[in-house]
Amino acid sequence: MKTFNVQLDERSYPIYIGTSLLSQTELMTKHISHEHVFVISNEKVAPLYLDKVLNSFKNFKCGYHILPDGENHKNIDSMQAIYTSLIEKHYDRNTTLVALGGGVIGDLTGFAAATYQRGINFIQVPTTLLAQVDSSVGGKTGVNHPLGKNMIGSFYQPRCVIADLSTLKTLDGRELSAGVAEIIKYGLIRDPDFFSWLEKNIKKLIDRDPEALAYAVHRSCENKAQIVAEDELEKSGTRALLNFGHTFGHAIETSLGYGVWLHGEAVAYGMLMAMRLSVKQGWLTEHDYLRVRKLLDQANLPIKAPNNMLAEKFIQHMSVDKKVREGKLYLVLLKSIGEAILTAEFNSALLNETLDECCKS
Amino acid sequence: MKTFNVQLDERSYPIYIGTSLLSQTELMTKHISHEHVFVISNEKVAPLYLDKVLNSFKNFKCGYHILPDGENHKNIDSMQAIYTSLIEKHYDRNTTLVALGGGVIGDLTGFAAATYQRGINFIQVPTTLLAQVDSSVGGKTGVNHPLGKNMIGSFYQPRCVIADLSTLKTLDGRELSAGVAEIIKYGLIRDPDFFSWLEKNIKKLIDRDPEALAYAVHRSCENKAQIVAEDELEKSGTRALLNFGHTFGHAIETSLGYGVWLHGEAVAYGMLMAMRLSVKQGWLTEHDYLRVRKLLDQANLPIKAPNNMLAEKFIQHMSVDKKVREGKLYLVLLKSIGEAILTAEFNSALLNETLDECCKS
Questions:
Q1: pLDDT tens digits, A54-94
Q2: Mean pLDDT of A164-168
Q3: Count of domains in chain B?
Q4: Annotated catalytic, B250?
Q5: How far apart are CA A348 and CA A361, in angstroms?
Q6: Residue A291 contacts B, CB cutoff 8 Å
Q7: At residue A326, does pLDDT exceed 80?
Q8: Which residue of A18, B24, B221, B342 is most buried, as measured by CB atoms within 10 A?
Q9: B211 and B332 share a domain?
Q10: Which residue segment(s) compose the domain that A234 sits in?
């Protein structure tokens, strides 16, 4: 097992990465300061791992709430259902919530913890690759609004993150690839050596080679923890670089309807779009663009826009993105592989050209 | 104009108290760091003061959202309506929300600010006495759940509080008295000299004598600011003392339906119930209890339980209160006028006796 710390003063917390961690009872219980625990999971994950988790809490008052699976349930209605469950079953302020599932469960549970009785503790137990390398680390919590993804939420840090690599065995292939998209992102925005490693090891990763997976999760979490420690609340711009591909990606997700494309799939193609624009700006070489395109393709990620996606849809959805400030759209673009910038200083005609080309391809 | 600071390190902020403050444009604009402002108000307050506030923001992009009036609208549906309005009108993360109204508007607006795009700035402009002396100061934000009052929310501090005493002229008598209930509370829990002052000046206060009002608001805010600075997140127990009368009061509000009794009315009678129990415990003298009862009566506040309120209803609603920890109910009780304690060490038979007596009276 490897352990990292996300350094945030009194909000610091460890990320544990390893195999069979769910069987290590003490790993979870040592982060729970009172005897009330409430697990939130979904219909897909609960049959696989809920019993194992409940087993850790035999000596606790421990309940659970199971949500339907999917991004389209990451909304206010699910929040209200969680609150109702907690109140009806008399869970008080000393309760610790446990998020058992992928990014949707993690974001919902974190936001429930941030807002139930004005804030209670929570633990992240991510069971998808995407959640292990991205959403469970860093304290972004929230839900979608029908008009925009992640528009409602707060920054709220967990007490710990337990990334049990053994849970990845049951993950379906599409979900695995979606996680690889976020892993590739770290290489692209700040870690060129890791990107080279990924080019060499992508087949192993997709084949779930345990060593390759462990290395990729570990290196991704390390990158994420450094960024979050530097800019917890996305004030300085450093953390915003993590949104590489996300503004385009969110437009795809919102436009198609949440859950039609997986978040990681939308981000993968969003990164390609951002790189296309970066090439047009003269910042990135065509050669590097093609390297990334090839890698995404090898990872079974989309390298074409969704059918019927219109350039106007992108414009419409990108205009309500959280990256809009005072009417200006900020995008994360690449100067080279391993070097990203957050900027509003791009040529908007080139953006339109990019959207048109991508939608026609 | 008087100014206090709520001392909370980088979250510190001023409370301005005075007359005609809404006309002092600069007072508000100096706390707004970008050019986007969005005012949230209700159907009762907006016709009176919205134009005045908008006038301060002539040079800003400034919109507004008007909610129906009343505690029964302090819920998730109103939150969703605010989010929709903000997204549709393209208000971004650099927007400052302005809460123009009473406690309901302040709590909703604060929670919207805490959760829109993971947190934006907001300003409190309380227009009721209760909001000026209590809810607008200290960063408690949130909404009610059908099963419990204020069960959903977060701690989130405003950039400033502007308490314009001139707005109290239009307040109806019942609302004024509701505010006086919270003012009396400060005397009871920590400021015996202020309580004596209130006994002497209650008629002036109810008659809206400007000097008496100014003094009462000022002294109340001073008390509140000290408590909040000491225990922002209600961890040490100090801040919990502000909930004197609230556990009983919330049970009344939830049981009757939000808005049937005003919050301050429910708190007033809740304080009497807590004092009744304090007398039974042998902590408070009957004489002091009667002093308070008389003062509340002079302030036109309820000194009897609502008709048809059953002891069982209190038990049921108090068992889901935020003051329940690990199955134990904590209550704020009085040792004497000016000295409150948070305790689970009361005799539960005496609590039942108190509930029975109060419901039969």
A1: 999 998 999 999 999 999 999 999 999 999 999 999 999 99
A2: 96
A3: 2
A4: yes
A5: 20
A6: no
A7: no
A8: B221
A9: yes
A10: 193-360
